[in-house]
Write a structure and sequence with these properties.
Helix content is about 40%, strand content about 0%. It is mainly alpha-helical. The chain has a domain of about 35 residues. It is extended, with a radius of gyration of 18 Å. It starts with a helix and ends with a helix.
Length: about 90
Amino acid sequence: MRYWIETGHSKAFVPLAPHHFEAFDCLDQLLSSEKNVVSFYLKSGEMLWVNNQIIAHNRTAYEDSLETPRRLLRMWIKADALIGRMQTSMMSK
C-alpha cells in the first residue's frame, strides 16, 4: 500500500509529512513478520470481502484463464447498518 499512497501523493503534487513516512516504516516492519500476515488461495467460485478501513491487504500476481476469466465486483456497504445486524444476529444465538 505504501507504493500506491506515495505514488498518488506524488502525482497529485501533495507532499507527505515526516510522520506519514514513520507510519509507513512501522507498518512495513509489522508486515515483514510472518506472524502478522495471512496467505491463502481462493478456489474457483470462492469470494473474499475486505473492509479497507480496518484490514491492510494485498494480493500476489495471478493468471487469468480464457475459459473462466476472473470477475471483479466492487461493493459499498454502509458499515453501521451491517454491524447492527451482526450484533443482533450474534445476540440471538
